[in-house]
Structures are given as C-alpha cells and as structure tokens.
UniProtKB/TrEMBL annotation:
<dbReference type="Pfam" id="PF13855">
    <property type="entry name" value="LRR_8"/>
</dbReference>
<dbReference type="Pfam" id="PF00560">
    <property type="entry name" value="LRR_1"/>
</dbReference>
<dbReference type="InterPro" id="IPR051848">
    <property type="entry name" value="PGIP"/>
</dbReference>
<comment type="similarity">
    <text>Belongs to the polygalacturonase-inhibiting protein family.</text>
</comment>
<keyword id="KW-0433">Leucine-rich repeat</keyword>
<keyword id="KW-0732">Signal</keyword>
<dbReference type="InterPro" id="IPR013210">
    <property type="entry name" value="LRR_N_plant-typ"/>
</dbReference>
<protein>
    <submittedName>
        <fullName>Leucine-rich repeat</fullName>
    </submittedName>
</protein>
<feature type="signal peptide">
    <location>
        <begin position="1"/>
        <end position="21"/>
    </location>
</feature>
<dbReference type="Pfam" id="PF08263">
    <property type="entry name" value="LRRNT_2"/>
</dbReference>
<dbReference type="InterPro" id="IPR001611">
    <property type="entry name" value="Leu-rich_rpt"/>
</dbReference>
<feature type="domain" description="Leucine-rich repeat-containing N-terminal plant-type">
    <location>
        <begin position="26"/>
        <end position="63"/>
    </location>
</feature>
<keyword id="KW-0677">Repeat</keyword>
Length: 330
C-alpha cells in the first residue's frame, strides 16, 4: 500500500471518528435539560445528564431524527427518588411530543402551566405522584393530544368541559383523584374521536348527562363515585363497547330493557339501585367479567355457556334474584 493510500485511509478514519463524536443534541435543549435537572435538585436518577456529553445519549429522554434536527421529542422521568415540582423549563422543549412524570411520590405542586407551550405534545402522562390542584383548562389548547393520563394523584375541582374539544384524543384517564362535580355535558359530544374514558375513584356527583348516551365508547369506567340517574344510556345493541364499569354509584334504571353490544366483554354494575331482571338475551353474551351484585334485581338468572361461568359473588345481595349459581327459584 503506497503512502498516498495510507494517508487517505487515515484522514477518512479521522473524519468518521469526528463525525460520530459530534454532539447531536441541540444546544438550546441541552441548556433547558440541565435547568430541569437543577430544578429537581440534581437527582442521581439523572446522573447521565453530563454537560460534557451529547444529551441525545442521556437516559430518560429521546431525540428525534435529522428531520427535526435531533431535537428532544420525549422526556420520560419515572420510578426515581425525585423531589420537588414539575420544572417550568419543560415548556422550553418545543419539539416535545411525549411528556411523562410517573411513579414519583415526592413530586408535588400543581400541573405546570408552561406545559401549555408544548404545541406538538401528543402523549401526556403525569400519574402516581402527589400533584395537587385542578385538571388544567389549558390542556384543551394542546390540539395534538391523543393520550392524557392524570391518574393516581391528588387533583381536585371539576373536570374541564373543554377537554371534549380535543379532536385527536383517544384516551382520557382521570381516575384515582379527588375530583368533584358532575361529568361535563360536553363529554357526550367529543369533537373528534370518542376516547376511552376513565373517571373512577373520584368524588363525582350529580346525574349522568343524557348526552353520554350518544358516543360509542370502547371503554368507559365511572366506578366508585356518587353519580346518579339512568346509566342504561351507555348501552346499545349497535354499539361496539368492550368494557363498562359503573359499579359503586347510585344509578337507578330497569335492567330488563337494556340491550348489550355484541362486543361487550366486561360489565360491572355492582352496588347501585338497579331494578328489573337480567334479560334472557344475556345468556348469549360472551362475558369475561360480569358483576350485578348488590342491586334490586329479581327473577331467574338466564342459563348460558358464559353467564354460568360466574359464581354467586357476581349475583348475590339482590332483591329476589334466583337460579344457578344462586338458590333455586321458588
């Protein structure tokens, strides 16, 4: 090999090494991330956030490709010993599409208002923390949101009706908080897709809006609240519902008239004031979970391959329900 070729190979190797060592991270994002780390008291969980290294190689985040100039697109901080509040600097990551603060029991304060600046955000999960305050109205300004999970916090106040204006929303999870007031009437008229809706384990009250019978919810969980009224509006033979949980409320309606979607798989309505009898058509339903206990039902339990799979726990403590797995009808 002549000297010219040797020199060429050396220069090529040097250029390749220099290219690989290049810091892909945008300088503005690196500055912002280091401010976030400082705001969280420089936790060990973020030890990889070294200013001397490429921030796109740091843990708890992801950078986009060259089409977005390798800007930070995901911030995922979870399962760590982190104290403090959500840093306001999270709003200074303009290319963020996914923001997660999860299972951080020492994370306190309100949901950070600067999140409203993240116009590209599609996925927001702030769960299993000690966040307080209201579900913020500004979430409705984030028009690209597809997924919202604010469960397992200490949020209070009412549910913003403006959330129904999010046309791309597919999943709304507000369970396990201290939310009060009624379900917004607007949740019967979502602007775009009908999201899976989870509002369980709160302190919601009032009558279920009649408008809630209009959407075809795939999954809806209203359990463990103080809701009243006719929840039979959630059902319908032409719907494509998979899961309905209305247990432990104060709903009152005649079950005899309820028509189920053929797709319904999980149905829990225990601990309400539901009257009537179990429709004979239910004998053909393919239930993986069924619980109608602690109501005011009467009559014979229909016989069917799937309905007979459940033990007395699914049917007991009704007014005069009878037949297997309960005692025989007289």
């Amino acid at each position: 090999m002549d000297k010219t070729m040797t020199l060429f190979l050396l220069l090529s190797t040097l250029l390749l090494t220099t290219s690989l060592a290049k810091d892909l991270c945008h300088k503005d994002d690196k500055t912002t991330l280091l401010k976030i780390k400082k705001s969280l008291n420089n936790p060990y969980h973020l030890a990889s956030w070294d200013p001397e290294t490429d921030c796109c190689s740091w843990y708890c985040l992801e950078c986009g490709d060259a089409t977005v100039n390798h800007r930070v697109t995901s911030l995922i901080i979870q399962d760590g010993e982190i104290s403090g509040q959500i840093p306001p600097e999270v709003g200074d990551l303009p290319y963020l599409t996914s923001l997660i603060f999860r299972k951080l029991t020492n994370l306190t304060g309100h949901i950070q208002p600067t999140i409203a600046k993240l116009k590209n955000l599609t996925f927001l999960r702030l769960s299993w923390t000690n966040l307080t305050g209201p579900v913020p109205e500004f979430l409705s300004q984030l028009k690209n949101l597809e997924y919202i999970d604010l469960s397992f916090n200490d949020l209070s106040g009412s549910i913003p009706s403006s959330l129904s204006s999010l046309r791309k929303l597919e999943y709304l999870e507000l369970s396990r908080n201290k939310l009060t007031g009624p379900i917004p009437e607007s949740f019967g008229t979502f602007s775009g897709k009908v999201p899976s809706l989870f509002l369980s384990h709160n302190q919601l009250s009032g009558t279920i809006p009649k408008s809630l019978g209009n959407p075809d919810f795939y999954r809806i969980d209203l359990s463990r609240n103080k809701l009243q009224g006719d929840a039979s509006i959630l059902f319908g033979a032409k719907k494509t519902t998979w899961i309905v949980d209305i247990s432990r409320n104060m709903f009152q309606f005649d079950l005899s008239k309820v028509k189920l979607a053929k797709t319904l798989n999980n149905l829990d309505m225990n601990h309400n004031g539901i009257t009537g009898s179990i429709p004979a058509e239910w004998s053909k339903a393919y239930f993986q979970l069924l619980n109608v206990s602690y109501n005011r039902l009467c009559g014979r339990i229909p016989k069917g391959e799937y309905i007979q799979r459940f033990d007395s726990y699914s049917f007991f403590h009704n007014k005069c329900l009878c037949g297997a797995p309960l005692p025989s009808c007289k």
